[in-house]
Design a protein that fits this description.
Chain B: It comes from Dyella dinghuensis. The complex is a heterodimer of chains A (377) and B (251). Chain A is α+β, with helices and mostly antiparallel strands. Chain A is built from 13 helices and 9 strands. Chain A has a 6-stranded mixed β-barrel with strand order 2-3-7-4-6-5. Chain B is 30% helix and 27% strand. Chain B contains 6 helices and 10 strands; from the N terminus they run E-E-E-H-E-E-H-E-H-H-H-E-H-E-E-E. In chain B, helix 3 crosses helix 4 and helix 3 packs parallel to helix 5. The longest helix of chain B has 18 residues. The chains are: A alpha+beta (377), B alpha/beta (251).
């Protein structure tokens, strides 16, 4: 079979270039947008994803990890009683106000009071044991290095949280959160910083480790069964993380924004691509009509156009993947929150291919004009 | 000298009986063909000539199965074309017909050899066979040495020869040519008409050519003069001893 579609694409590449670029740009925009959204909203659940706990117990109905309310100490007992739970650790969340040494005004911060022992589960991914140990000093806090500027401090500086003196004993990365600056301290320091009398001595969450993490869903269901220890709810870490991200996405309207933008990108890409393909078909309409006169069926001609659309899509996707990888690496080096999972990437690329195919279908309609009788004059 | 003759002949390959066709543009209906009856024989180059707008292209379109007639019947190779579906017509054309148009309509991206091979591959011929037939056809039209060239590297006459080879390689029983020489100079036009004539003789093909080019008249086996949707005369032209000074009813 003479590879008409491919040979035409190669020979007349200038004609097809706009379509390839349109698919490539659309694909790249979708990829970067998805990566950015996942990166930014992924940080809403940094408390969960940065920690190694399998289960989270918190106030019933909590929609996002930053909206926790104090829960009863007895719930820790309830968790420990479960045969699959090997370890339980408290997590204290304090909504606070920061005053730095430099003139930064008030900064709304979230203090994460964590167990500072070396084997603690909270922020085990972000804090190496040596850094973690420094939290034992009273008033010691650790912040993300990307937040130093907005807090107006450097390592070793002192500042005030809720009017209490704290000292920045170290920085880490992977602590950045959404909605406010995340500040890590020991449980003891957090207790001192919490000036709300209602919360006195109460923890916000209890996190637990399981003998077999793959049983997390089952154990969470089992623990949710009883209410004898006061109101609480148990989530698996994965569930709670996702719930927090979705909350932020919907709360900020970003979810709708993303879908809207994806729709626009798709539409613009499809218009450019289909117009280019249509122009290419019109450019060869007399040749197609001649083939049809010679008895080559419409179906076979449609296939040629769809094959061209497919190659345009494939080339566009390759361009976007190459450029996308470069940009993701650059973003990572500059601590821009970007995250892309293979599944999301596959969806973005599938959308781009769909764009090319839809454009091919639009161009295919023009084939109706390939009437061989019109060649007779 | 025009001696209309309708001799019953076993060699008749194309038959139109009482064919009519009209077009509607806006509210105006214009009749292009009126009750036209015609037999075309194999192994002959039949030329339909006439002024533009006389209906000769429409007649070609109907006889070749590119367009349905409004009334009457068309039989090609013993098969009734009127009433066939679009797919059936396409299949009939794929199996039995070749076309040469005024514009050469070659794909810019393909070499001469690929242009000729392309329809053959759609006929389902194995690759080797398609290649062999394509090469033979290109050699027959005198392009054996230029078959690796793309259309931009060929002259107008060569392009038209590629188009003829493309039609010829299908080994069609019916070959239709619409103004095949109009875009060419006299030398190249001469070459084209000679090739078409030779195809009719050597392959037993029915070659039906529509043209208002008076240079072709002397080379045809039979000339049908058309005007206003009717055939005015049907005659065998004098042998092509020299360029004929034909008194054509052409515009």
């Amino acid at each position: 079979m003479v590879a008409l579609a491919r040979k035409t694409l190669v020979y007349e590449w200038r004609r097809f270039l706009p379509a390839i670029l349109a698919v490539g740009f659309a694909s790249l925009l979708q990829l970067l947008q998805a990566a950015l959204v996942l990166g930014i909203f992924g940080s809403a659940s940094v408390y969960i994803t940065g920690s190694s706990a399998d289960l989270w117990a918190g106030y019933p109905g909590t929609q996002s990890v930053n909206l926790g309310r104090p829960i009863n100490e007895d719930i820790a007992m309830r968790l420990r009683m479960d045969p699959d739970v090997t370890k339980v650790e408290p997590f204290r969340w304090v909504d606070a106000d920061w005053r730095g040494p430099r003139d930064t005004g008030g900064v709304s911060v979230f203090v994460s009071g964590i167990d500072s022992r070396p084997d603690g589960m909270m922020f085990s991914h972000a804090l190496p044991p040596a850094l973690r140990a420094r939290l034992n000093e009273p008033g010691a806090v650790i912040v993300d290095k990307a937040d130093l500027d907005s807090l107006g401090v450097n390592i070793g500086d002192t500042a005030a949280i809720n009017g209490q003196r704290v000292r920045v004993v170290g920085v880490s990365s992977g602590l950045r959160a959404l909605g406010g600056v995340n500040i890590v301290s020991s449980l003891e320091t957090a207790r001192v910083l919490d000036i709300d009398p209602v919360d006195a001595g109460m923890m916000t969450y209890f996190v637990a480790k399981l003998r077999d993490p793959s049983k997390a869903r089952m154990v969470a269901r089992r623990l949710n069964g009883s209410a004898a220890f006061g109101p609480y709810n148990v989530w698996t870490a994965k569930e709670f993380a996702r719930q927090s991200q979705i909350y932020w996405m919907l709360d900020t309207g970003a979810g709708a924004g993303v879908l809207f933008l994806a729709g626009i990108v798709f539409l613009v890409g499809a218009i450019i691509t289909s117009q280019t393909l249509i122009a290419a078909v019109i450019g060869s309409i007399r040749e197609y009509a001649t083939l049809n006169a010679l008895g080559v069926g419409r179906g076979a001609l449609r296939k040629v156009i769809m094959e061209q659309a497919f190659w345009v899509g494939a080339l566009g996707m390759i361009c976007s993947v190459v450029v996308g990888i470069v940009l993701l690496i650059v973003a990572r080096n500059r601590s821009v929150p970007m995250e892309l999972h293979p599944f999301t990437a596959a969806i973005c690329l599938a959308l781009s291919m769909a764009l090319a195919i839809v454009s091919g279908l639009a161009a295919m309609r023009i084939l109706r004009r390939a009437d061989p009788a019109s060649l007779l004059r | 000298m025009s001696t209309p003759h309708i001799t019953p002949n076993a060699n008749v390959t194309l038959q139109a009986s009482s064919v009519s066709k009209s077009f509607v543009s806006g509210r105006v209906q214009s009749t292009v063909l009126q009750n036209l009856t015609l037999d075309v024989r194999g192994s002959e180059l039949t030329l339909i000539s006439g002024p533009s707008g006389c209906g000769k292209s429409t007649l070609l379109a109907i006889l070749s199965g590119l367009q349905p007639a409004d009334g009457g019947s068309v039989r090609a190779l013993g098969q009734e074309l009127s009433g066939l579906s679009i797919n059936d017509l396409e299949y009939f054309r794929l199996q039995h017909t070749g076309f040469v148009f005024q514009g050469f309509n070659l794909f810019p991206a393909l070499t001469a050899l690929e242009q000729v091979e392309l329809p053959l591959s759609y006929m389902g011929l194995p690759k080797g066979m398609a290649r062999k037939r394509a090469v033979e056809s290109l050699e027959e039209v005198g392009l054996g040495s230029r078959m690796r060239l793309r259309p931009t590297e060929l002259s107008g006459g060569e392009k038209q020869r590629v188009a003829i080879a493309r039609a010829l390689a299908k080994q069609p029983e019916l070959l239709f040519a619409d103004e095949p020489t109009s875009a060419l100079d006299s030398d190249n036009g001469q070459i084209i008409i000679d090739i078409l004539h030779r195809i009719a003789r050597n392959h037993g093909t029915t070659v039906l050519c529509v043209s208002h080019d008076p240079r072709l008249v002397g080379h045809a086996d039979r000339v049908l003069a058309m005007e206003d949707g009717r055939i005015l005369s049907d005659h065998v032209p004098p042998a092509p001893s020299k360029a004929p000074e034909a008194k054509e009813p052409s515009a």
